[in-house]
Amino acid sequence: MRILIIGAGGVGSAAVRIAVRRPFFDALVVADYDPARPQALVDELGDPRLVAAEIDASSSSAVAAVVREHAITHVLNAVDPRFVMPIFDGCFEAGATYLDMAMSLSAPHPDHPHEQTGVMLGDEQFAAAAQWEAAGRLALVGMGVEPGLSDVFARYAEDHLFSSIEELGVRDGANLTVEGYDFAPSFSIWTTIEECLNPPVIFERDRGWFTTARFSEPEVFEFPEGIGPVECVNVEHEEVILMPRWTKARRVTFKYGLGEEFITVLRTLHTLGLDSTAPLDVKGVSVAPRDVVAAALPDPATLGDRMQGKTCAGVYVTGTGTDGAPRAVYLYHVVDNEWSMAEYNSQAVVWQTAVNPVLALELLASGAWSGSGVLGPEAFDAQPFLDLLAADAPAGYGSPWGLEERDAGAA
Amino acid sequence: MRILIIGAGGVGSAAVRIAVRRPFFDALVVADYDPARPQALVDELGDPRLVAAEIDASSSSAVAAVVREHAITHVLNAVDPRFVMPIFDGCFEAGATYLDMAMSLSAPHPDHPHEQTGVMLGDEQFAAAAQWEAAGRLALVGMGVEPGLSDVFARYAEDHLFSSIEELGVRDGANLTVEGYDFAPSFSIWTTIEECLNPPVIFERDRGWFTTARFSEPEVFEFPEGIGPVECVNVEHEEVILMPRWTKARRVTFKYGLGEEFITVLRTLHTLGLDSTAPLDVKGVSVAPRDVVAAALPDPATLGDRMQGKTCAGVYVTGTGTDGAPRAVYLYHVVDNEWSMAEYNSQAVVWQTAVNPVLALELLASGAWSGSGVLGPEAFDAQPFLDLLAADAPAGYGSPWGLEERDAGAA
Known about the structure:
Strand content of chain A: 25-35%
Number of domains of chain A: 2
Oligomer: homodimer
CATH architecture of the largest domain in chain A: 2-Layer Sandwich
CATH superfamily of the largest domain in chain A: Dihydrodipicolinate Reductase, domain 2
Number of strands of chain A: 20
C-alpha cells in the first residue's frame, strides 16, 4: 500500500504520527499547499517511508498527477471539505482508493431551508457511486471519528446488540478547557460554523431526510468517564446521511454537545453575518468574514499543551435488544488530552479524528475490509475495526471504546 | 459665522439638514474624504450658503488649510473619534472655534484596567486647555446628545432644581426596531464597541475617577413616552469626565440601555477578539476585525425608513431639591423616528445627535453662549439652550424635552 495524505494541518499531521508506528504500508506521501509543513513532519519523524510533496488540492488534475507520480494506491483527504470534490475526482481519474473524514458540502433548500433538504452532504459524491462501482474502485467516505467511528458503532449495534433499532443518535461532547483563552475551539471553527449553522438534518424511515431550525431539540446528555452532562443540539452531520443507507434504524440524528456558550457564539456570528463565506469589501480590501473569525482565534491544532480534559464521540442507540426486550446503549470512545499529548503530541480531538482513517487503511491493506463504490464505514464489518482500535499496542491502537447500558425506559 | 462641518456621514448630513433651516450663519462648508458625499447633499438641499469640499481629517495641517481657505470661524467635527486630535489641533492652528460630539480616545490602565483609569476620554484635549484659554479660543467638546444635551440637563438640574446633587446618572435607552434585520445597530457599531468594551468609568467626589468591570451594575431603567423598561449597564462615556468639572455632583455615572441581546453580541465579539482594531493577517490580506464587523452590518444612517420606535437621552438626578427635600428627577429628550424621518429625512438617533451642536452654534452666533478654553456643555447656561430646543419652529427647533419627578425614596 502506498498512501497519500493530502493536508499537513492538525488532523493530517496526527494521521502521519499515528501511521508511522504501523508496519502495514510501504510508502506515505504527505502533501500540502505549503511544502514546508509536510517537510517539517518528515524531518521530525525520520521514517524512511515518508515523503513530503506540494499539492494544489483544489485541482483534480493536480491531485491525479501527484497520485501517478508516487504510484499511490490510497489517498486520505485531510483538508477542509471545500476540497472534497477535486480530490475525490482526482483519485477516480488516477485509479486510487479515496478516503475522507467529511463529505461534499450541502446547500440549503432555496425556499424552505429549515423544513426540507436541498443539496445534501455527500450528494455530489453519491452521484458518482455507480461509476466508482463499475470501475471496481472504492471511495470510503466519512471515515474520521464523526462521521467514521460513530458509523462503525452503528453497524456494531445493528449486527450484535439489537434486533431492531428505533434511533441511532450520535452524541458528541467534551469537557476540554484551554488555559489562557476565554474562548478557543478545539476543532476548526470554519468547519464548526459550517456544520452548526447549516440547517440540521434528521432522518426518519417513513419520512426520509428533512431539516429543522438551528440548534433544535436541545437535550442534556450525560457523557461517560467524568465528562458529565453537556447541552446537545441538532446539527448537520454526515452520519444522518450515511447510517440510513446501510442500517435499518427508524430514525437517525446527530446532536453536538456545544454547550450554551458556544451556541451563543455561533448564534451571534450568524446574526451579525460573520459566518458568511462571501467576500465583503472592508475599506477596499476583499475578505470573507468567516475567514476573519478563524484568523482571530488560535489554531486549534497548536493548543494541545494548554488543553485539559476529555472528548467523547459515540452513538446512543435505542430499540429492541437481541433478547426482544427494550434496550438503550451508548457506544462511545473517549480520548484524554493528557494521554494523546503524551503519546502522540496530538491534541485529543485531532488525534481522535485521525486514528480512524489510519486504522481503516490498515484494514484495507490486510483485506479485512474491501469493497467498491462510494461506501460509508457502516458498509463494513465493525468487529475487526473495534478490535484493532482497542487492542494494546503494538498489535492494536491501544485506545479502548466503551459500551454503557442505559435505562431503556427513559429512552 | 462661517461653519465647516467635517464628515458627511449620518450625523454630519443630519446637522446640515437641520442647519439649513436656520438663518444664523453666513456660510456652511461640508467636507468629507469623499467629496461626492457633501456634493450630493449640497445639490439636494439647494441652499446658496452651502459649499462642498474634500478634506483629510487625519491631518491637522489639511484641516487648517481648509479652515483658512474658506475663512471658517467655527468647525463641527462629525467624524469618528479617531480624528478628534488632528481636527482639534488644526482648528487651534487656524484660529477657529472647535466643536465635537465625542472626545479624544482613552487607553486603559496598563495593569489594572478595570479598577483604575489610564488615559481618560478627552485627556489629550484638556492637556491643551490653558493654551486655548490663553489664546482666547473656544473648544466646546462633547456637544452632541450624549455627551451634549445630557450635560446641558446636568447644568439645568444644578442651577434650577437641586440645592445639592447626590448623583448625575445619564441613562440612555430606546425601543427602536429595524424591519428586515435580525440585528441592526441604530448607531455606529465601531463607536458602540469602543464605548461599551472599554472599562466603564465612574466618578465619585471623594475618590475621583475609577473604572469597573464591563457591563457592571446592571439596572432596569424605566424610560418615558412608551419606551418602557430597558436593561442598562455602565459604559465608558464623556459625561462622567465632563460633569464633575463644572458641577458639584457627588457621583456621576453613565448607563447605556443596551438590552440583553446587544450585551451578548458585544461580549461575544470581545471573547472572539473581533472587537480588535489591530490588523490581522487573513490569508495574506491585512484587516482589522472591528472594521469587518462594521462592514458586515448595515450602515445605521441608511436604516431610517425601516426603523420604528423612539430613542431617549437623559439624566436621572438624585439629591436634595431647592426646598430641602429629597428629590429624584429624570430630565430627558425623546425623538420618535417617524417624526425625524418625516421632518428631516434623518433617523432618530442620528437626528438627536446632530441637532444639539447646530443649536450650540446658534447660541454662539447670537452671543447667548461665549467662552474660551476647552469647555463642556455644562460650562454654559442651560436655559437658552433648552428654550430654543423646545420652542416651535421657526423660532426654535420644535423638539421638546421633558422632566419627570420620580420617587425620591426609591433613589
